[in-house]
Design brief:
The chain has 188 residues and is mainly alpha-helical. Helix content is 45%, strand content 11%. α2 crosses α3, α2 packs across α7 and α4 packs antiparallel against α5.
């Protein structure tokens, strides 16, 4: 279960890229591709009104995936996940931090595939997360990838540090992600 470029791009596609700290939909300070202080990298106040380069944003994003990947590997240590399943479980944990306490993971490990598929959708807050959760479920259980190698970069924030989605620009980050993974010795 390696972090491949395809895996990293799938997760990035569910997020957005913002080069300075912003408040997400529930008010948590976030930066780069969905990173919060919980990632192990101090986001706030470091990047508040202090944009980083695209390269730095992607470098820290790829670094942070390893922390989450380790937890996913521990939770699925008794079975072998294919690339799509690993990507979906990693995306789920990157977003929720809850792979170690998710009922769907326990059910999957017990061999209850139908129960796991249903329980996957228990993680549905905030409401705007539902489309992502459905895509993660479909990737895990049906191998349906949703990324195209791009991430939406939000280039402007409101006065209260909320993303202005109309300022979004699609960025193809395939080459940068592959290079960073190669540099870290991961599979690309």
């Amino acid at each position: 279960m390696q972090i491949t470029a395809k895996v990293a791009l799938e997760i990035a596609h569910h997020e957005a890229l913002v080069r300075q700290a912003y408040r997400d939909s529930v008010g948590v300070w976030t930066w780069s591709i969905g990173l919060t202080n919980a990632s192990g990298h101090q986001v706030y106040p470091r990047y508040k009104d202090n944009p980083a380069s695209l390269e730095r944003c992607l470098e820290v994003y790829v670094w942070s995936l390893q922390r989450y990947a380790d937890r996913v590997r521990r939770e699925f240590r008794l079975c072998t996940l294919n690339e799509a399943q690993f990507a979906a479980a990693l995306s789920f944990d990157f977003n929720t931090g809850g792979v170690h306490r998710a009922t769907w993971v326990r059910l999957w490990n017990e061999g209850n595939i139908d129960g796991a598929r249903q329980a996957f959708m228990n993680w549905r807050r905030p409401a705007e997360i539902l489309p992502r959760r459905e895509k993660e479920r479909d990737l895990f259980f049906h191998g349906e990838w949703s990324n195209d190698g791009t991430v939406l970069e939000i280039t402007r924030l409101t006065e209260d540090y909320r993303p202005i989605f109309a300022s979004g620009v699609k960025r193809d980050i395939r080459d940068q992600i592959a290079a960073l993974l190669a540099k870290q010795g991961a599979t690309s």
